[in-house]
Automatic annotation (TrEMBL):
It holds the Pfam family RTC4. The keyword Ligase does not apply. It comes from Racocetra fulgida. Keywords: Cytoplasm, Nucleus. GO terms for cellular component: cytoplasm; nucleus. Residues 7-72 form the Restriction of telomere capping protein 4 C-terminal domain. May be involved in a process influencing telomere capping. Coiled coil: none annotated. This is Restriction of telomere capping protein 4. Belongs to the RTC4 family.
Amino acid sequence: GMFIIRSTLNILIESKKLTYKMTKPQNPEEYLSEVLVPETAVRLIAQDRQIGLEEAKKVMADSAEFGMYVHDIELEDLELK
C-alpha cells in the first residue's frame, strides 16, 4: 500500500509541483515520505472504513504493530544505524 501511495505521489516531485520552497526545511523526498504518504494512508483508511481521522490513525498504528509481530521485527531493528 505505502509503495503504491509513494509511487503515485512521486509525480508531484517529478512534475516540480512539490518543491523545496514548499517543503523546507525538509527536501521534497523527505516531506513526501514523512508527511504526505502517511497522511494519505490515514485518509484512505478513514474513507474506506467510514471512520474519523483519529480512529484511522489508530488502525494504521495497529496494522504496523501487527506487521512487526508477524514478520518478527523489533523496534530496535528499525532504528537508523
